[in-house]
Amino acid sequence: MVLNRTTPAQRAEVIVKFINVAQKLRNLQNFNTLMAVVGGLTHSALARLSKTNACLSSDTQKLLIELTELLSTNNNFSNYRRQYQQCTGFRVPILGVHLKDLISLHTALADKVDGVSTSLIHFRKMVQLYQIFKELTCLQNENLPLDTNMDLVNTLRLSLDMHYTEDNIYELSLAREPRSSLSAPVTPTKPVVFADWVAGVSPPDAETINKHVHNMVEAVFKNYDHDKDGFICNAEFEAIAGNFPFIDSFCVLDADKDGMISKSEMKTYFIRANCHSLRSSFKHDFHEKTYFQPTFCTHCTGLLWGLIKQGWKCKDCTINVHKHCKDMVVMECRPKLNSPRRHDSVFNDSEYGCYNNKHRMFHDSKSHRSTQTDNELLLTPNTKPLSEAPVNGEEFYEEQSLLYDRLLKAEEAREKMIAENAFLKSCLDMSLEQNVTLKCQIGLIRQHTISFILNQMDILNLYKESEV
């Protein structure tokens, strides 16, 4: 009857009517019919109707909860049994509960007592059976406090004749309020995580690009803005350029030509230069790993729990993250420094100087396009990446693409060797200082040892005997 109504308000009206009927049955002490009505109101096909339940008043919902708790199966229907014992006069018990008591009693206790020489009837079992049957027999002999209206009874029997199965009822419930009417749609739109955007599998919409570019800029400033002033100076930009070989020169990113790169300027550049080369610097190659010592997640700083395969580790930068954190990591993937081969980084000065001149000319030809204001931070459909914009001399560089890539690799290898050389030099200086310190300490130890031995000999008055 509830699902026959088309609107939530109409269905709520029918539910309220049945709750009033249940309250009337409780007053009449008709617990058997009350169980049937409350069971229908709490059926899964009606309980899932969120819009219908939202139309019910708080008092109606509270009354339904009270009736449900009264007929709850907890503690073997303890609430119902307590209420039933307090009833006087005509009452209709829940027949299923009392029939269950008969079955439980018959199963738990044997008809005759075991362990005696003669077979004796189990008297306690018979007494309990008698009490149950006596209660049911007395109820059958009591007169009804009202007159039976057979026409109404026949009408109810006809209207309540079940023509639907459980599956049909649930399908009708889904037809009234589909799953999409709940908080989540049937096919929810999964938010594009940073890993999907970096890999290029996400749709290139403006909102997604702005969101992930903002996170990328924050990560760059977190790692390279050493003085934490919110700007990137020329010295700090050199470290960025060493790890981002495809980034343009400092003058291109410095749109207002004030000698500092702000977050908005870098964000504008990254949005306009939305190319795979820049995004690949943030792409990690994670693989599942088992850790034999306590390890913490780089993203959420939480401990990687488990016996085996506790987390994921990047093969390049070796960061460790949880499985649910690996797609949200916004961090530059900086490979560990390895000793490059010598022939990969050796070029003559003429080739390197030619590359510097070409690289400088290439950046100067694009610098006039970078003077954009903060109002252009939002990406428009007509905005083209820097790599797609026409520049002077582009055909020349396309012809020299192989040489250009080779020189880029050489410059990257050179920067790595310079950094490694500086690191090794600092380690050598520290080792020399430690060596000098240890030599001084050894001299002091020797001096104190000899003095200690001589003092002990004087105390013991040890003299060498000589021949006279």
What does this structure look like?
This protein folds into two domains: 122 residues, Son of Sevenless (SoS) protein, Chain S, domain 2, CATH 1.10.840; 217 residues, no CATH class. Helix content is 54%, strand content 4%. It is elongated and about 115 Å long. The strands form three sheets. A three-stranded antiparallel β-sheet has the order 5-6-7, with no helix packed on it. It is built from 19 helices and seven strands. It is mainly α. This is Ras guanyl-releasing protein 3. GO terms for molecular function: calcium ion binding; guanyl-nucleotide exchange factor activity.
Portion in beta strands: under 5%
Residues in helix, %: 40-55%
Give the low-pLDDT segments: 181-194, 339-398, 462-466
Count of β-strands: 7
Order of helices and strands: HHHHHHHEEHHHHHEHHEHHEEEHHH
The main sheet orders its strands as 5-6-7
Number of helices: 19
Radius of gyration: 43 Å
Query: What is the total domain count?
Result: 2
The whole-number mean of residue pLDDT values reads 73
Report the principal-axis shape: elongated
Can you summarize the main beta sheet?
3 strands, antiparallel
